Amino acid sequence: MLSTRAFALALAFGVFFMALVITVERLALSYTGENHYRGEHHATKRPEAFKHDNSQQTDREPAPLSIETPSNMLSLESVSESAGRSKSAPESDCAQFPDTSKILLVMKTGASEAFSKVPAQLVTSLKCLPEFLIFSDMEQEIGGHKIYDSLDRVLDPVKTNNRDFDAYFRQRQCAADQESCNQNMDFEQERWDLDKYKNLHIAEKAFNMRPNYDWYLFVDAGAYVVWPTMLRWLKKLHHTDPMYIGSKTSAGNSHFGDGGSGYVVSNRAMRGFFENEHNVANRWDEATKRHCCGDLMFAKALKEATGISVNDTWPTTNAEKPFTIHYSSKQWCQPIATMNHLGSEELSALYAFERERKFTSPMRIRDLYHHFVAPRLVPNRPDWDNLSDDVFYLNMSENTYDHYQLRKAKLEGLSPLEKSAHLSFDSCQRACQVDSACLQYRYHNGVCGFSWTIKHGLPKKKASRISDRWMSGWDVDKIQVWVQEHDHCDEEIQWPLIQTPRL
To answer: Where is this region: Disordered (predicted)?
Structure first.
């Protein structure tokens, strides 16, 4: 009996022991599996390169990257490798996007417009950039992306008792959203007056935060960058040279890169301007009060500090967009890297076009015509301004024309059709049709305008009186012949500032 009971107890103890071993192994496996899963999670989660939350640091020092260090976590090098694309972007969207890791995009906006312009940028090409910076006239956050205040370090004596900064202080008192607070304000001029103080401070902050990029590309929030063009072009230039390039514009005797077109500054130029210096932009705060524009002030300051002047790269850096570009023989085969004044729908359309092209090659201006303008080409459009302004035909017995119209008016040697072109839209059309150089025409308020280039233009509000309506027409047959004659472009692109070897 005793031996039987002993055997039963021994058997029960053995079963219990085996069950305990299995339970312990399962717990260990569960613990290991959980750690393994977390390791995979951290492997796919990239640092938020877009956000740049540097609230606990100066502008000069980039935020340290915080990485957990258990043995089963990724190393810092592995995480850095995965930081080249936003994980919020579908792989299919960015898989063929070019490598922009040597160019820092620096975008300028304003608090009153940021929520209407920046979101479209974030869901198009910006989502494929490894890093970018956005500056405004107030610190904000859009969809988790930080927008920096570019004006927080403008000298206090310049800010105070300066009407240019009325909007800067008022928008900080807004108890609702900025759009609601500004809807009853005449904000356009205020925004322009404030904007001119941004460019220099943005450049200094951008360099102090990220001093090691080869190139710094400064654009407005309404701009579109054609990255395949920009990358191919800048690879042919040297960031070790002191370079400042953009669409050259003049104000008096001063020349500068138009900020709307975007301008590019090399690392060498940025270092010569800002490295080992402090409060550089403040040196021109007071002078900015007496000038019109921030892009002008950047050029003046850069010239004074380093001797570097702007190199003209129009039409590759371009302030127009597909519907307002002048499609001429001079521009037709040229590469295009930037455009401006684009709404959200236009940004999306351009991004979709580049996706169709698989971001594979530089874009030429003619490509924009074929994709955006040619499908919309019609003989005429009412309530439309097609920007035909190369020459005007006027009724000189009237005295209601502005200086621009008078400067471009043809006053001598007029044919009978040209003499009557100002009488009506039909008269304007007939005069254009017999002029071999006239590709399109426009009629408004007794003025007939011809254009020697192709322009699509934009709609106009319908006027109550027929005589006040904007009417536009295109000589479709002549345009199609012109396009066919000019559509062959040399395979070798003529890049701005690049000397093509002659054979």
So the answer is: 38-71
Instruction: Return mean pLDDT, the chain.
Output: 84
pTM comes to 0.80
Contact 138, 154 (CB under 8 A): no
User: What pLDDT shows up at residue 91?
Assistant: 60
Residue 172: band (very low, low, confident or very high) from pLDDT cuts 50, 70, 90:
confident
Give the helix ranges, DSSP H, for 243-321: 267-274, 285-288, 294-306
Residue 450, CA distances (Å) to 24, 281, 386 in order: 88, 46, 10
Q: What is the separation, in whole angstroms, between the first and last Cα of the chain?
A: 112
In angstroms, the CA 160 to CA 366 distance is: 49
Positive or negative: CA dihedral 312, 317, 323, 329: positive
Q: What is the distance between the alpha carbons of residues 120 and 127, in angstroms, rounded to a whole number?
A: 10
3-class SS at 300? helix
By C-alpha distance, which of 306, 288, 70, 87 is closest to 193? 288
Q: Specify the length of the chain in residues.
A: 503
Burial code of 417-432, b = ≥16 C-beta within 10 A, e = fewer? bbebbbebbebbbbbb
Q: Which of 314, 325, 322, 195 is nearest to 258 (CA)?
A: 314
Domains and CATH numbers, the chain: 92-312 (3.90.550.50), 379-486 (no CATH)
Q: Which two tokens stand for residue 405?
A: 């119209």
Q: Show contacts of 416-423: CB within 8 Å, 24+ apart.
A: 418/393, 419/393, 421/393, 421/448, 422/393, 422/394, 422/395, 422/446, 422/447, 422/448, 423/395
In the predicted model, what is the mean pLDDT of residues 73-89? 35
The pLDDT > 90 percentage for the chain reads 72
Residues 169, 173: Cα–Cα separation, whole Å: 7
Preceding amide of 335 cis, omega within 30:
no
